[in-house]
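Reopening: Leucine-rich repeat-containing N-terminal plant-type domain-containing protein still failing for me.
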Amino acid sequence: MCGLHTILLLICISHLFAINGEAVTPRETLEIIIGGGAASPWPRPEYQDCPPPPPPPPPCLPTPSTQPSPTLTHPPSPKPPHGPSPAGITKTWEGNNICGDYKGFICDIVPDVNQKTISGVNFNNRNLNGPNLTLTEFLSGLKDLAFFHANSNNFIGSIPEDIGTLRYLYELDLSNNKFSGNFPYQVLQAKKLVFLDLRFNTFFGVVPPQVFLLGLDLLFINNNNFKQTLPGNLGSTTALYLSLANNKFVGGIPRSIGQASNTLLEVLFLNNQLTGCLPYEIGLLRKSTVLDVGFNQLTGLIPSSLQCLEKMELLNLAHNKFYRIVPESVCSLPNLVNFTVSYNYISQVGPKCRKLITSGVLDVKMNCISYLPNQRSKADCDRFFSNLQPSCTDKKFLTYIPCSKGYSGKQLEASNVHWATPAPLVRSYGALSPH
Ligand SMILES: *[C@@H]1O[C@H](CO)[C@@H](O)[C@H](O)[C@H]1NC(C)=O
Ligand SMILES: *[C@@H]1O[C@H](CO)[C@@H](O)[C@H](O)[C@H]1NC(C)=O
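Support: Ran it again with your exact input. Result attached.
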């Protein structure tokens, strides 16, 4: 299913989903285009498949609506937006044969009414613009829309109020447009959503906690201007990929993050204004392969619980205020490919960590390790340590190890592997470029 051409980044997710904490059911394979450059209509939603199931699994077909869906003979109001449309798709928006002729619109049969209608919109990378290019005119007529992908256009305005009434909508990609204002709370009504990509807009204010209660697989809200303490229920998210990078979030990383241990694979807190210590609950993320908290103001010791991140490949703690020692147990993690603690105040590394430095896995430049090159000046380090306030006085934060045993037994094997391990395919980092 993943063999696609011209797509910048295609993610095939196939994973197990825990239901009721016990039973495990294969979850539908999803194809996700992050800002895809696909020129052809893709992906085709297949209504025959189960809609992506929030637990417990829903029936395969939605219950028929009382009102049959209209077969659209016109797209919503396909008056092309004014202004240049470099990709030229609006030139094709003429005549009545929308499903056959109109580029950017994808049709499919709606099962309960057995009629062909517009099921998806793919305007990715079309650079559509115009003075009044709003979503309303596109969405309001499209009652059976399953996906709306509009990466890299010039949409403005607000999200239509009735977006939650789109009974099939499961993917909404509004990334890299000109949306502004508060978080589009309207999307919280779209209960079928599994993919919500709002990155690279200028939304500001707060992210409502309810967004972490949607049954999402992917939530990208990076590169906006959200400013708030991260909601305490962040760990309720079912997202596999979570990017909060490049906003203005403040406060600590919520301890609830450990609740996402059954699902969370990659999480980016990169470049916010987060403070406090890393909660030991991060160590519960036993499936995670990417954790990036770089460029914040986090402090304290690196918690020993991180040794439980059995799958971790890319661990970035750079540009914070972590100090003293990198736990040897963390350097023994079996899957580390890139462990960056540069630009902190680490003063000591043991033999296992030194091995990782030698093999190029661990980057400790610009710390306070007097016997290594490329460190901060002594004056800089002295200043930091003499002003150091005791932080994270809860000892559990530092010493509690939530997994039954660490992975130190694998260190020899692991350190051999590190030389040859290729860079991981990090999916959520794709979200950090606008397209
Ligand atoms: C854009 O919308 C505004 C406000 O609704 C309206 O006054 C203006 O005439 C519209 N411009 C165009 C080009 O349609
Ligand atoms: C390791 O990760 C850091 C932070 O994410 C990144 O800046 C750096 O380029 C990576 N190093 C390698 C060798 O991939």
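The helical segments are 98-101, 136-139, 328-331, 351-358, 378-386, 396-399, 411-420. If you still see a failure, please send the error message rather than a screenshot.
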